[in-house]
Amino acid sequence: MRLHQLKIDYETEQDRLLMLVSASDGVEVRLALTRRFVKLLWPLLVKLAEEASPRISTQSNPEARKALFGIEHEQAVSRADFSRAYEEKPRSTPLGEAPLLLARIQTGRNREGQPVVALHPAEGSGVTLTFDSVLLHSVCRLLQSAVKKSDWDMDLQLPDAQERPPAERAPRTLN
Questions:
Q1: Which residues pair with 108 in a beta bridge?
Q2: Cα–Cα distance list, 148 to 13, 128, 134, 152, 155 (Å)
Q3: pLDDT higher than threshold 90 for residue 41
Q4: Is residue 64 in some structural domain?
Q5: What does the pLDDT look like over 110-136, one tens digit per residue?
């Protein structure tokens, strides 16, 4: 299956994020993410994004790593298409009409070295997503946006040196 669209929204009544994953073959998977699950998922996504970029992973200076992450994040997100609304149309739901309450996460890499994230309920089948840079950073952006709509008192921060005030930055070594 090939990913067609992805949507993440906050569901007030359930106090959960609802992730809709549609494939090009007319299949949709509905996933429910709790606050606890997002707290576990977020650092894994950020780590995968850092490790997926040779420019970031080979950089020894932490401040430079953060700055490069911010640059790559903005470049990847600028290549994504957030202008199209999620297509609300009938699709088959092989994992059920009700959203799966996610409880387990597995991360890794496929044969080509791309990041892979498996999202599963406590029991039964889940979904495995293979990420390229654009999709990985787009999911981060969608999660940030959905969490801002919640009342979870969470701020999903990316490791970007520009986000910290200058007083908090580590001292720089000048040659």
A1: 116
A2: 16, 25, 21, 8, 7
A3: yes
A4: yes
A5: 999 899 999 999 999 999 999 988 899
Q: What is the reported pTM? A: 0.82
Evaluate whether residue 80 is within a structural domain: yes
Tokens representing residue 77 in the block: 């997100």
Per-residue pLDDT tens for 156-166? 988 864 444 44
Is 51 within the bounds of a domain? yes
Number of domains in the chain: 1
Whole-number Cα distances in Å, 103 to 35, 76, 83, 96, 158: 11, 28, 31, 17, 23
Question: What is the domain extent for residue 95?
Answer: 3-100+132-153
Asked if the structure places residue 55 within a domain, the reply is yes
The residue among 114, 108, 127 whose CA lies nearest residue 32 is: 127
